[in-house]
């Protein structure tokens, strides 16, 4: 038996005045054809009391109870970057962002949480420059992918109150600056980064080209060294993960799964979808379980881009779901395909929400009475409901949850 999980990050949404969502408006013939013969329903990927982040939700979908294993977002990303963590290390996610031009830092507005989806090459130059000027014996900056980077505190404690920048798009930052543990130090670093970055040659060139400058860092996602059970040890499956996002790669590494890199995979709508599909097909030849993570719908949701979100769903259907399904069907072995978002990212809100999301479980050796089209509404109408996202792994393996 082969298992393919295709994760449309942030795909779920709220209906507009006509009752439509990006899922219902998107042309996704392969997904809908699978839905007609699949188990379809709603699943709660974010346990009560936890924030609806991609970290919590993807852990759930992979079979981990985040209430027991989640220690923060940034340490998972640190694993992907290759940062060595001790038990007393504390890490912070470090976004390169675009803030408005007011003189006082506190008066600025969060214009762009991704600094115009800055390239990894440009970002690396900026982070290396900041590292030369901000790193110390206590704190060290590490470069990641695009706007996503990491700050490591070599020895410390948690307790900082930090806000994800994508939660405050187009809002004043004054009420969302660091509070709690190390607040003054962290805010000082953010302010100093702005002074260093605002006239950096990379940003002057971006401004001249009509692009958003990466004129500050923004710290959030505090955490400590994660402790994830080995995926094969509790599933019996040899697993692989394909993602352009350090967070998902870090989960894979922490879980002992094979993290597969795809050249030109960006985590946006401009990613190499075909390359990721080919990587999935290749991985399915040698692995039992392949998890393909697609960030594009989530990025479009954060940007308030309804048309982009619809297009992202269509591209994933055409260039990911279709070739992966056709490969599995032509192999002759039994297989299962699980399709779902990790959480909703409504384009009207530009941030994550934590309500149950639609799921689709197609089984090649079992017929289900499905739905004509896979949407939030049709999933709810089936009456099927899974209490916790981490029960999905048991549904995949046809076993009772322990």
Indicate the overall shape: globular
Largest sheet strand order: 11-10-12-1-13-14-2-15
Sheet with the most strands?
Answer: 8 strands, mixed
Oligomer: single chain
End-to-end distance: 22 Å
Helix content: 25-40%
- What is the ordering of alpha helices and beta strands? EHHEHHHEEHEEEEHHEHEHEHEHHEEHEH
SS strand fraction: 15-25%
Overall residue-averaged pLDDT value: 96
Number of helices: 15
Number of strands: 15
What is the alpha-carbon Rg in Å? 21 Å
Structural class: alpha/beta
Low-confidence stretches: none
Topology diagram in text:
Blueprint: E1 2-8, H1 22-25, H2 29-35, E2 39-43, H3 54-61, H4 66-69, H5 74-81, E3 90-99, E4 110-112, H6 120-134, E5 139-145, E6 148-153, E7 160-161, E8 179-180, H7 183-197, H8 201-208, E9 216-223, H9 231-235, E10 239-242, H10 246-254, E11 258-260, H11 273-284, E12 289-294, H12 296-302, H13 306-331, E13 335-340, E14 357-363, H14 376-381, E15 385-386, H15 392-397
Parallel strand pairs: 1-12, 1-13, 2-15, 10-11, 10-12
Antiparallel strand pairs: 2-14, 3-4, 3-6, 3-9, 5-6, 7-8, 13-14
Helix pairs in contact: 5-10, 6-7, 11-13, 12-13
Describe this structure in words.
- With 402 residues, the chain is an alpha/beta fold.
- Helix content is 35%, strand content 19%.
- It contains 15 helices and 15 strands.
- It has helices spanning 22-25, 29-35, 54-61, 66-69, 74-81, 120-134, 183-197, 201-208, 231-235, 246-254, 273-284, 296-302, 306-331, 376-381, 392-397; strands at residues 2-8, 39-43, 90-99, 110-112, 139-145, 148-153, 160-161, 179-180, 216-223, 239-242, 258-260, 289-294, 335-340, 357-363, 385-386.
- The strands form 3 sheets. An 8-stranded mixed β-sheet has the order 11-10-12-1-13-14-2-15, sandwiched between helices. Strands 3, 4, 5, 6 and 9 form a 5-stranded antiparallel β-sheet that branches.
- Helix 10 (246-254) links the parallel strand 10 and strand 11.
- Helix 5 (74-81) crosses helix 10, helix 6 (120-134) crosses helix 7 (183-197) and helix 11 (273-284) packs parallel to helix 13.
- The longest helix is centred in the C-terminal third of the chain and has 26 residues, at 306-331.
- It is globular.
- The model has no long low-confidence stretch (mean pLDDT 96).
């Amino acid at each position: 038996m082969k298992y393919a999980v295709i994760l449309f990050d942030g795909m779920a949404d709220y209906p507009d005045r006509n009752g439509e969502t990006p899922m219902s408006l998107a042309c996704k013939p392969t997904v809908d054809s699978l839905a007609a013969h699949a188990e379809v329903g709603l699943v709660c990927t974010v346990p009560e009391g936890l924030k609806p982040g991609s970290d919590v939700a993807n852990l759930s979908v992979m079979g981990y109870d985040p209430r027991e294993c989640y220690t923060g977002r940034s340490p998972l990303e640190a694993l992907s970057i290759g940062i060595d963590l001790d038990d007393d290390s504390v890490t912070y996610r470090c976004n390169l962002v675009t803030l408005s031009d007011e003189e006082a830092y506190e008066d600025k507005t969060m214009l762009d949480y991704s600094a115009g989806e800055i390239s990894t090459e440009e970002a690396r130059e900026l982070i290396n420059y900041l590292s030369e000027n901000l790193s110390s014996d206590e704190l060290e900056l590490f470069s990641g992918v695009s706007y996503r980077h990491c700050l490591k505190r070599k020895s410390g404690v948690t307790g900082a109150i930090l806000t994800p920048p994508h939660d405050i798009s187009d809002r004043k930052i004054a009420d969302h600056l660091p509070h709690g543990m190390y607040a003054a130090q962290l805010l000082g670093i953010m302010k100093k980064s702005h002074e260093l970055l605002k006239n950096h040659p990379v940003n002057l060139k971006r401004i001249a080209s009509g692009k958003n400058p990466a004129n500050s860092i923004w710290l959030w996602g505090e955490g400590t060294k994660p402790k994830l059970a080995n995926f094969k040890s509790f599933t019996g499956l040899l697993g692989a993960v394909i993602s352009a996002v350090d967070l998902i790669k870090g989960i894979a590494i922490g879980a002992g799964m094979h993290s597969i890199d795809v050249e030109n995979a960006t985590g946006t709508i401009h990613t190499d979808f075909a390359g990721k599909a080919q990587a999935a097909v290749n991985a399915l030849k040698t692995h039992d379980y392949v998890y393909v993570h697609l960030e594009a719908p989530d990025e479009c949701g954060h940007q308030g881009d309804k048309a982009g979100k619809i297009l992202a769903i269509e591209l994933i259907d055409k260039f990911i779901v279709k070739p992966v399904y056709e490969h599995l069907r032509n192999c002759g072995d039994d297989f299962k395909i699980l399709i779902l978002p990790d959480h909703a990212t409504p384009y009207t809100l530009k941030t994550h929400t934590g309500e149950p999301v639609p799921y689709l479980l197609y089984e090649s050796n079992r017929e289900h009475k499905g739905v004509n089209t896979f949407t939030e509404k049709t999933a709810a109408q089936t009456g099927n409901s899974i209490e916790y996202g981490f029960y999905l792994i048991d549904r995949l393996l046809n076993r009772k949850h322990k």
